[in-house]
Amino acid sequence: MLTRREFAAVAAGAPLALAAAKLNSTVHGVLIGCQSYSFRDRPLDEAIKAIAEVGLSECELYMGHVEPKQARGPEGREQLRRWRTTVSLDEFKAIRKKFDAAGIDLYAYNYSFRDDMDDAELERGFEFAKALGAKCITASSTLSTAKRLAPIADRHKIPVGMHGHSNVKDPNEFAKPESFAQAMALSPYFRVNLDVGHFFAAGYDPVKYLEEHHDQIVTLHLKDRKKDQGANQPFGQGDTPLKEVLQLLKAKKYRIPANIEYEYKGEDSLAEVKKCYAYCREALA
To answer: Which phi and psi (to 5°) does residue 218 adopt?
Structure first.
């Protein structure tokens, strides 16, 4: 006998073995998930299969897995704008069904609000997130765009986690603790998507920031970079205090998804994300 969820999964096209699987990647109280950017080398359906094969039960969906590839030049940019403002929300609802069928919680939608977006494109990001059933949006954005975005976020009442990189020279980019604070002062719905690798490579302590601002963080990105703007490394081979971050989540019982974002050079993304997950499980043992 199939459960109702399993029957719905099979009806949605999932293999029976996959539909029947009950994924749970919570390790000692810490939810380990995946930024689907980790599987940027394959289309959405294959990425979902890979996430399920790793055994991860939560996902932050990368916009590149949803949007059509943008052609070069102004014409390509206009085509993408037209797609964003006219695409049926049913396409996003169908994507949610695919994740549900695979037993994966689509927790967040990564839609990066950028300076070249018009107001309609900004607005649509929230409509996409709602259609996906996502609990929040994560965004590689800028302070200038955040100022335009604030009233839209207030109207939709959906949290937006600003994603930080390590470019501390550009005051318009999110990298420093002060830049996150500037954004959060603009709207009660602005939060932080803390990339612990980038934050550390920029010269800051992700453990301290997590402990002090955990209630303002929607998701974590897990990666291991060398200090002083160093390169991405396999988990455990860089300088980022990944284990300490994971242990803090465990000790304090912070309910913040910790999403693997595979970016270092490896031969196969599926094999590498499996290694990343194994590292996390060991670090939390």
So the answer is: -90, -40
Split at pLDDT 50, 70, 90, the class of 267 is confident
Tens of pLDDT along 41-93?
Answer: 999 999 999 999 999 999 999 999 999 998 899 999 999 999 999 999 999 99
DSSP 227-264: TTTPPEESTTSSSS-HHHHHHHHHHHT----EEE---S
Exposed/middle/buried for residue 228 (C-beta within 10 Å: 0-12, 13-18, 19+): exposed
Distance CA 178, CA 171 (A): 10
DSSP string for residues in 192-207: EEEEHHHHHHTT--HH
Q: How confident is the model at residue 152 (pLDDT cuts 50, 70, 90)?
A: very high
Residues comprising the chain, all counted: 285
Q: How far apart are the first and last CA of the chain?
A: 36
Q: Which two tokens stand for residue 1?
A: 């006998």
Sign of CA dihedral 136, 140, 144, 148: negative
Q: What is the rounded CA–CA span in Å between residue 271 and residue 54? A: 9
Q: Which residue has the tokens 């081979």?
A: 237
